[in-house]
UniProtKB/TrEMBL annotation, chains A, B:
Name this polypeptide is given: LacI family transcriptional regulator
UniProt keyword annotations, A-Z: DNA-binding, Transcription, Transcription regulation
Gene3D superfamilies membership: 3.40.50.2300, lambda repressor-like DNA-binding domains (1.10.260.40)
Source species of the chain: Thermoanaerobacterium aotearoense SCUT27
Pfam entry (one): Peripla_BP_1
Taxonomic superkingdom: Bacteria
PANTHER family xrefs: HTH-TYPE TRANSCRIPTIONAL REGULATOR GALS, LACI-RELATED TRANSCRIPTIONAL REPRESSOR
Domain named HTH lacI-type: residues: 18-72
PROSITE patterns hit by this protein: HTH_LACI_2
Presence of the UniProt keyword ATP-binding in the record: no
Length: 356, 356
DNA sequence: ATGAAAGCGCTAACAG
DNA sequence: CTGTTAGCGCTTTCAT
């Protein structure tokens, strides 16, 4: 009888759910006891526990995380801001973060900033007002402006994929060294006129991935005493079409590249197609190397040589760090630099000296 | 003086934020007035509004969405469950949802079910306990089990990418017709031994995309009086490597296909590479058609013919429907079927009759 | 081991 | 137009 009444009562409510009072009443205990049962407190008699569980089941009760968060001032939620989830690189990072968060019972609010700084800031505000316990921020730049916004917000923060000189933990690869390695490899294969397809350089003012990588490229070229052709350094947008256009321009220019280094696999794939469309062959006429080592790199033809980033790990490590910080645990290292790897595949070929 | 005290007080608090009381005190008004200001109530004097805003700014106050949600029993958040964000198809759907949600000031909790039904159910529970206002569920199947779970949970729900006979709104394309169209096109080009690479068929028991599409394929084959070879119907996993393996098996078998219809562009790309690796040419020896029309389809070589799905719109329409349902507005149509489009590109060629 | 009660930050009658 | 007050559902002392 009582149960029926309770259920009927609840029916009128929009969010049609039993709450802790209902359970307490039905189980003939106090709300405190119900709370204890659902928080696995040891100080509950077996008898009380059972009747609470029974009542909860009967009413279809589940604790409201909302109310709990408010009471505990802890949401068990982290915010994640990425520039563009439709980029497979980020999907993979997200997977790493997700897996770790699942282990530690954290939820994620994923924010797709759409490569817009305004949106990033908007999302930071939103996450703050939702009391997320911390934020993982993945962007290819980290400006003073963003730094100050975060500083004002006072939320635990970990940077993924981007280093900074500010005192903020991050997990990255050594982009400069990675680009250096890739370029050096191309040079070792006899390539001399090497083109680059990079992303936004942000006027070289702030540190962005593409700037690091471009420096790495220049390091290697300089070391080898090779000429760097301005016409072979093209800006693009990390998309396949962008890579295609950039490569096309190069191939139609005065200085023909014998190799192209694209700062993402997707752009590299575009470049390979531009080479085909120009009536040339990859790698016979132009070698191509990418960056990221997406799954796709392995199955394209020619298979794409590339610099492998540990995308999943970047996410996973960032998440581990953030959760430790939230829990006020010591983190052994605030600046984590993960290893990159050069992956050689068919899109690069050794160039004979005489052919040049 | 007063301000300083307040701020100091707050410092001790873990979530170091000013709350509505602080603002009310500093502005010399009641909390109700502060609340009114932040909810744009017209019944506030200009004077009060100003001093509230000033105080809020001084204290860096932002309303807690958490507390607001609890008080209003509305979170302005929707849950989104997808099988695998690393699949570009889903990224694009997510973008559509996001854009609409941004307009209507909804937030999204994105759940990546990792193609696991257990995880899906887990996420449904989580979303429920977070009081999301509604859920968009994108999966390639919708089983009785899942239906009943949702029914018990009583949360507004919209299905994306999957039709159902249950009384649940959905937005989809006509998968059967789409596959029929693609197959018919291949047949019209003179192909006879057509292979198929599909996804999980779930024992043909529940309706999943691949089953619909397979039926569409069979419809067209039957209509044309063509023989369907079991050896040319291969199951795969919607990934490039899977498509590669499936195509390889076909090409090494007794019955050589003259065309392959892959149920996703990614698998189609894998198939094209398998064709190359078998020493054959696409489209000269084997034509390939995909499904989805990802950005990538346009930039691969040969460019990939495919069945275009309006991915972004599937997301956007689903989000619009859900928000209307949440707001108790009439929705004109509960079952939305969006248009697919056949996109012809170089990976399909006309086969001469004599060559077969 | 258990209950009463205060409080988390906000909204929404209600009364003025 | 504004303030008072009673919740929203949960956790957490503090008694018992």
């Amino acid at each position: 009888m009582r149960v029926a009444t309770l259920i009927l009562l609840r029916r009128e409510c929009i969010v049609c759910m039993a709450n802790i009072d209902d359970v307490a009443k039905l189980a003939n205990v106090s709300t405190a006891t119900v709370s204890r049962v659902f928080n696995n407190s040891p100080y509950v008699s077996e008898k009380a526990r059972e009747s609470v569980l029974k009542a909860a089941k009967e009413l279809g009760y589940e604790p409201s995380i909302l109310a709990r968060s408010l009471a505990m001032k802890k949401t068990n939620t982290i915010g994640l801001i990425v520039p563009d989830i439709s980029n497979p690189y980020y999907s993979e990072v997200v997977r790493g973060i997700e897996d770790v968060c699942n282990i530690y019972k954290y939820n994620i609010i994923l924010c797709n900033a759409d490569n817009s700084r305004d949106k990033e800031i908007q999302y930071i505000d939103m996450l703050k007002s939702r009391w997320v316990d911390g934020i993982i921020f993945h962007s290819d730049y980290f400006s003073d402006e963003i730094y100050h916004i975060f500083k004002d917000r006072k939320i635990p923060l970990v940077l993924a994929g981007r280093a900074t000189s500010y005192d903020i933990p991050y997990v990255v690869i050594d982009n400069r060294k990675a680009a250096y390695d890739a370029t050096k490899y191309l040079i070792s294969q006899g390539h001399k006129k090497i083109g680059v397809i990079h992303g936004d350089l942000n006027g070289m003012k702030e540190t962005v991935d593409s700037v690091d990588r471009l420096y790495g490229f220049l390091d290697a070229m300089k070391e080898a005493g090779l000429k760097v052709y301005d016409e072979l350094i093209k800006e693009s947008n990390f998309k396949a079409k962008g890579g295609y256009m950039a490569a096309k321009e190069m191939l139609m220019g005065n200085v023909k590249p014998d190799a192209i280094f694209a700062f993402s696999d997707i752009m590299a794939m575009g470049a390979i197609n531009a080479i085909f469309d120009a009536g040339l062959k990859c790698p016979e006429d132009v070698s191509v190397i990418g960056f990221d080592n997406l799954d796709l790199a392995e199955v394209t033809r020619p298979a794409l040589a590339t610099v492998a980033q540990p995308m999943y790990d970047i996410g996973a490590v960032a998440a581990r760090m953030l959760i430790k910080i939230i829990d006020n645990k010591k983190i052994s290292e605030k600046k984590v630099i993960l290893k990159h790897r050069l992956i050689i595949r068919q899109s690069c070929i050794k160039r004979d000296a005489q052919k040049i």
